[in-house]
């Protein structure tokens, strides 16, 4: 057992030894730089904390190596250029969204969410009189209706007269819930189109933005699958420039006409959302359409879900409610839909 006089000098020696060991470890170890993943032959750049955004490089103390910082910055720029070139090989972005524009989720949400209130509630679902709009008053209008019907295979003239927004009946079953799990995953909504009517495409996107909680939308990708007629992309792009609430809409174009399935795969590879939602370009979504789909996927990630699909009459453009039904494939791999009749719902 040590006496008190011997213990005090020994404690002092041990304390000095511990301090020296800690000092040399901090000077030589990876914790002093924060760059433990760098290789031995790579330069370590010490970036000082700068509180003012207006400070100049020459005002920073001599510990900051400006040349090394610029080298790392240039290497990053070169990597970004190579990344952008790779993206251009897959397809080009058209419209107002440039290929080299990249926004993180917070920037995108800050820019889009306030813009959603620009459209007043009463303007999001204007009531339109389809019978009145469908009136043909001259031979010229009759010819125009015929030409547009042959072009789009539906009443394109009436669609143009309806405009870019309209009120549709809420077709949800009374037993549908109005509250959902939270939080739900965010979705990338992918819309592929080919030779689409501009008014139908724009009205479809507006229905998504007006009837969907924007915090559930990562992005809306409009994939032009090599259309022969550029009107839809041009008018939708011009509409985006005039309406800030379209900030989360991105225009993409396939390198050629890939076909529907390959175009969807093309869009899926571009998407950044947790869930991929595929919509046809000639549709309009209804109230609370997305939340039940995301809730089922949140419960089990392996699920592939499909909603009840209502009908838009190709001549009258009226929104027609579909009965509750079930769908499946027959032995010929043809998708069939059948009504469930009076089956009870759990």
TrEMBL record:
**Domain (Glycosyltransferase 2-like) ranges:** 188-320
SUPFAM superfamilies, per the entry: Nucleotide-diphospho-sugar transferases
Q: Name one GO biological process term.
A: protein O-linked glycosylation
State the UniProt keywords alphabetically. Answer: Disulfide bond
Write one Pfam family the protein is assigned to: Glycos_transf_2
Keyword Ubl conjugation attached = no
Gene3D superfamilies of this UniProt entry? Spore Coat Polysaccharide Biosynthesis Protein SpsA, Chain A
Q: Name one GO molecular function term.
A: Notch binding
List the GO terms this entry assigns under cellular component, sorted alphabetically: Golgi apparatus
PANTHER family associated with the record: N-ACETYLGALACTOSAMINYLTRANSFERASE (PTHR11675), POLYPEPTIDE N-ACETYLGALACTOSAMINYLTRANSFERASE (PTHR11675:SF63)
Task: Write down what this protein is called.
Answer: Glyco_trans_2-like domain-containing protein
